[in-house]
Write a structure and sequence with these properties.
344 residues, 2 domains, alpha/beta, 12 strands, two-stranded antiparallel ribbon, 32% helix, Rossmann fold
């Protein structure tokens, strides 16, 4: 069936995207099946062109004003505006999107990027947004909290050597310095959940198209940051022993689709590093695969903490690099039909 854009269902309320609320699953399920019948929407299994929509960390902790790591961008309304556009994109292209995947940043209190993990000689913890450099660790400014080492069952000497190795590894690979983030995306907490409006759109899609969403949990390893869904920032300890591995099963599944659209938060961190790692793995096999990837530039924003940190320039530079590698930079309002590489 030829693809044409759909109207947006009446249940979608753009003004509620910045709020947390309970999705009415039963009614949405019934609505979705009625909508599919009304608009002759076929099951995803019938798609001749298989399209995967990957949503990176579209969670309350990053997307709702007042939550721990709200991504406001320079405008201050970044993630909220992004998600209004994202939901509309899903509904308009419900009959073309084969499957939706969502990464879930998932944290516990005692992790290397949280304040409690480190102490100085006075026993004080670093404040949120402190950057921990390899030089800081070498000089003994910051050490692993021995109580955390004990709780995690790790020897204190090993944990301190690991911290040195970890910060040096980030520096060698030109990655961001170890950042102490506010406690966020805490497993079991409301910040961990998907944005309600986006969750509703994903559920509606799954009901209308008989397509289960593909949820990917990341970030719960206490010894490494994990911005990317493909792999964590550091994968080995100082002795070369594995502490984590590449999410190769998901990457292979992702690349089996004809087109991959990517959106989410934050443009400068989890989204950028997911794309970066995807590009690295693709380059090692078949660089032409980059042409499968479409970046929804109006559905993502960079981390900006006024008067503290602004990663806008780094995010824009990353997107220029991705475009130079062959990926497509598109907008949520662009029509899928006629995009390079997509032929319905």
């Amino acid at each position: 069936m030829a693809h044409s854009e759909l109207p947006i269902p009446s249940h979608f309320e753009p003004e509620k995207v910045d709020q947390v609320w309970k999705v009415d699953y039963q009614n949405r399920a019934e609505d979705a099946r009625d909508w599919a019948n009304q608009h002759n929407i076929e099951p995803a299994s019938a798609d001749a062109v298989k399209i995967f929509l990957l949503l990176v960390d579209v969670q309350n902790t990053f997307c709702i004003p007042g939550f721990e790591l709200y991504v406001g961008g320079r405008s201050g309304t970044g993630a909220v505006d992004d998600n209004r556009r994202l939901c509309a994109f899903i509904y308009r292209n419900l009959n073309a999107i084969t499957r939706i995947g969502a990464t879930m940043d998932t944290h516990l209190a005692m992790q290397i990027f949280h304040s409690i993990f480190l102490v100085n000689e006075k026993g004080e913890h670093p404040a949120p947004y402190t950057l921990i450099t390899a030089e800081d660790v070498a000089q003994g400014i910051w050490k692993v909290n021995p109580e955390v080492s004990h709780n995690l069952g790790i020897e204190t000497l090993y944990s301190q050597e690991f911290l040195r190795h970890y910060t040096e590894q980030l520096d060698r690979e030109s990655k961001y310095d170890l950042t102490i983030w506010p406690y966020h995306a805490m497993l079991g907490g409301i910040g961990h959940a998907l944005v309600s409006a986006v969750e509703e759109a994903i559920f509606y899609h799954s009901m209308a198209r008989y397509s289960s969403p593909d949820f990917q949990v990341k970030g719960d390893n206490p010894l490494t940051e994990n911005y990317s869904v493909i792999k964590p920032e550091v994968m080995e300890d100082a002795g070369g022993r594995k502490i984590a591995q590449i999410n190769s099963v998901f990457m292979e599944r992702l690349l089996s689709y004809d087109a991959i659209f990517i959106a989410g938060q934050a443009k400068s961190h989890c989204l950028a590093w997911t794309i970066e790692d995807l590009l690295h793995e693709i380059t090692a096999t078949d660089r032409c695969l980059t042409e499968k990837i479409y970046l929804l530039q109006d559905c993502t924003s960079p981390v900006v903490i006024p008067d503290v940190i602004d990663y806008s320039d780094q995010a824009d530079e990353a997107f220029r690099r991705f475009a130079d590698a062959g990926m497509h930079i598109v907008c949520s309002t662009d029509r899928l039909k006629g995009m390079p590489g997509i032929s319905f």
